[in-house]
Write a structure and sequence with these properties.
17% strand; Rossmann fold
């Protein structure tokens, strides 16, 4: 395989599982795409197509998503470790991380822990210091997924859910809300450029009011850390943003690459 020009898709072993990874091997900056909680790498296809072959696009299915294998550990920390496993397997030193929803939190935590390795982050409607916590919220989340339990196997085959039980889906959601609520110090420490592409309207499981409160929670952090900026606020909602406003995400990536080249 020519590592510069050939696309590679295969399994990367990590701990007790294997991750399905695609690496286009393009000649430009390596971009690593990090998914939402329950979906697959195919959601990034519009962004990748918009940017074209001049970049090196690396995407992967997280544990028990898509073609990746199941695991005994679906924690947030496992997802952060999976970034290292993919980078090491593909020989990538300074990636530009692009994360949507859950993946944006993974991205900012990874660059916080690896300040010399992360080139920049694009956070797509996420990585903000806001989460639903408390017993009432946990009960709400568990109840929502238990009501969906009969649909989850079909949804997983369509790439809209993980290959997990309803309770496992819920625990991932509960954990990320706790991490999100406490992430302001992480965001304030970041020294690499971070660009946000924010949606409008609500989301499955979250009303318009809740989602707008989430986005507004970013404002104090933006005021305190000049490395964080909003690149665009778009018309689509949280779920549709990669499908309907992929051009805004691609433009944020281009902006960061231009800034890096000028530095």
């Amino acid at each position: 395989m020519n590592p510069i020009t050939s696309t590679w898709t295969g399994m990367v072993p990590v701990e007790d599982t294997e991750l399905c990874v695609t690496d286009t091997g393009g000649p430009g900056r390596a971009i690593v795409y990090l998914d939402g909680s329950y979906v697959t790498r195919r959601n990034w296809r519009p962004v990748i197509a918009e940017l074209g072959p001049g970049w090196r696009h690396i995407s992967f299915d997280e544990r028990a998503r898509g073609r990746s294998r199941r695991s005994a550990d679906y924690s947030f920390e496992a997802c952060v470790r999976d970034v290292d496993a993919v980078l090491n397997a593909r020989g990538v030193e300074r990636p530009l991380l692009v994360g949507w929803s859950y993946g944006a939190y993974v991205a900012v935590h990874w660059v916080d822990r690896n300040p010399s390795r992360g080139a920049a982050v694009v956070a797509v409607d996420s990585a903000v210091p806001y989460g639903l916590t408390g017993e009432e919220s946990r009960d709400r989340i568990r109840g929502m997924f238990r009501r969906m339990r009969l649909l989850l196997p079909l949804a997983s085959r369509l790439g809209l859910a993980a290959h997990m039980t309803a309770d496992q889906h819920a625990e991932i959601n509960i954990e990320i809300n706790k991490i999100a609520a406490a992430c302001a110090p992480v965001l304030e420490r970041l020294t690499c450029p971070v660009r946000y592409v924010l949606a409008t309207d609500g989301n499955f499981g979250g009303s318009q009011e809740e989602m707008e409160a989430m986005r507004a929670a970013l404002d104090p952090v933006l005021a305190r850390n000049p490395h964080l900026k909003i690149s665009a606020k778009v018309a689509s909602n949280h779920t549709q943003i990669l499908r309907e406003d992929f051009r805004a995400v691609a433009q944020a990536i281009r902006e960061l690459a231009t800034e890096e080249g000028a530095a």
